[in-house]
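=== Structure Prediction Worksheet ===
Name of assembly: unnamed complex
Input type: mixed (protein and possibly other molecules)
Chain count: two
Listed entries:
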Amino acid sequence: MPLPYTLAELEGYLDETLPVERMAAIEAALRGSPELLTGLAKIVQRRDAGVHSLAEIWRRGRVTCPDRSELGQLLLGLLDEEQANYLRFHLEIIGCRYCAANYADLQAQQNEAAEQQTVRRRKYYQSSIGLLRNKAE
Amino acid sequence: MPPAEDLLIEQIRAGEDGAWRELIARYEGRLLGYVEQRLHNRAASEDVVQETFIGFLTSLPNYDRKRSLENYLFSIAAHKLTDYLRKLGRRPTLPLSGGDGSGGDWTPAGKERPASAAVRSGERRGLEAAALTAALLTVAQRWREKGEWDKLRCAEMLLVLGKPNKEVAQLLDWSEQTVANQKFDLLERLRVHLQRQQLDPDVFPELTAE
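=== Predicted Assembly ===
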């Protein structure tokens, strides 16, 4: 019986690029479906053999992703209606995770206290700075 | 890569603290957004982002500057997120072999993989992917400039989501024939583009399927 996921979706699952609800649905389905697991393994084999897919190329190349400033303009309501509708389609129907992440970040910048950002950034910096110094030596 | 990013990477390679702070400040929010969508747990998400930055510095000698920095960081975050989900037991490890059992539904449309594919170099594969990406970007940019938003929607639903023509036609309120024509035109453009660059369309099974 055909499985209810397209090849493009399964590739998106492997790359962590599908909308989160779809990712969760595939994860749940995998628990009871050896066929699905085998199918994913076959996709990996195809990739290892050098076969490309348009969905993978499209997502990796961010072919239709707006730049961050456009997402900022969307947030501020500065885009014309047609372009704004298209960006909402890209975010909500296509479910682009990268653009959703940028959009969430821009929203957070409007709402989050600067102190929270500073604490987080300091943590990332302190946990990695040793590596930076090692590189330079 | 934009010149400002190029400079930032150079400074980080030279061990400049300020540049590293700048990169963290510029990208941590979007990386956190990406991970947190999936984990719904702020502390765990921050840990994954932390691992992402460590992974970036570790992999810096291999970083290809032609690649977008944001995309590179997102790809590291995706790997770290996958590792984290595996540890939680949410994401299974794939078997090494796909086997040849009841996998008929998984065979991609189009011709079988050409024998040459298995021995093509990574460089060659990179060239093929870059050529097709460039062709898609050109087409998409043209549609954007002309305000042909439905053509973008159509292509994304067909290629990125893998939706069938019928469903796309319903969503766009187009005829199925219009969707089919649109798909054919796009695939034909891509085939021509690859042939002009003397690349083999057979490594893109979807381009030779119809």
